[in-house]
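User:
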Amino acid sequence: MERLLMCLGIILIPAASAKFQVQSEEKLVAAVGSDILLPCNLSPPLNRTGLEIRWFYNLFHSIVFLMREGREERQDQIAEFRGRAFLRDGPETGDLALSLLNVRLSDAGAFHCFVEDVSNQIYEEAVVNLSIVGKGSPPHIDISLQGSFIRLSCFSSGWYPEQKTHWLRNNKTIKPDSEASHKQSDGLFTTESEILLNSSSEGHFYCGVKHSLSGLETGAYIIVSEALFPRVSLWMISFILLLIILVSLLAVASWAYCRFKREKERDLRIKNNQLDLLRREIEWRKVSVYKESIFFDPLTAFHGLLISPNRCVISTTDIEQNLPENPERFDTEPCVLGSKSFSSGCHYWETEIQERDGQFWSLGIARQSVRRMGGQRESPESGIWAIRGTADGLFGLSEPQKLINCTNRLNKVGTFLDYERETLSFYDVETFECLFQYTQQFTEPVYPYYYVGPGMSFVLNSQSHR
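Assistant: Predicted structure:
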């Protein structure tokens, strides 16, 4: 016998005549989850010495079981058969049957019983074609009401291949009103169907499933009597009407109460908001009495910033200005200080923010010795106490930075410094809301500080207090 094992490209040289035979059944059927014995008979029985017994699945290298010189070799066994495939006996008895445990759907295919006398280069094989079926569970029938009808639902799972239910009424076939099947996660199938019955449909009903391969059938019976069907009485109709009226009245009363409650909550919320606004305005007016006029200091302004003649407006410019050298000037950052310093007392000033086509700016105070040459980091450690506006929101530049919840677009900021009480506060002038507050001990004079990002302008409100 000549064989070409294409999967591994290995050619086994056949002997002139075989000294033994291997026989088996050609076809077997097994149920999912069962154990099965794949028969293989060796004639005559042989000694294990020099003998290789190989069970493989479809391809030569897909080893299900391997024995060489009487020793089982598991290292080459494919993973899905480990712990599931065993040789029942051995070549001395001629019984090479393979025990396959817990059969799976994936086991369907050809199993080869291959025996080789290695020293004499003689081999024989037999093939067992294994088909897998799912026997399925006995059908379960549920009964329920659907309006004036009774619904019978039949359900069964664990079938392979896909099967269908069938119905009998008083031993006569009837067609279901609906039927469907679904594939389970394990590859088996679930089948279900249902029929609708009216008051004239009493009798004996049977739901069954017959396996198309094995021919085995399983089913369930149910008896439907006239007493199961709903009856409508005048008393029941009256009760239902009264119940509907009562439920409607309760619904109207609940709706009216909920509406009244919502209006009360809305009025209370409006009053609370008004009180909160009044409280904030009183607090703001207490600090705004210290309002004073400040101006931008041209001697500290970055050369890319343009200051108006009255020193109340500063903005960015694309034209680099020819300004005299000054150690007080910021040389790399678009910053500027106010012309007035504070070393005591309370001070309040307002700044209007104009975002023409930019959204990056900072304002606050800086100590007199703040770094002017080279880059800098805006933080209290660097001598800068400020808030920053970006496209991502408004931030207090503390350590770490804190996001400021601002409910509306910030147009005008009021800055209040209480030098002795060591506080610096920022207010939204339009809503009187305190946006952010620093608590810091100041050890030297401080100046109003501004970082003017591209496309930004600041306007100082240097008029008398309104």
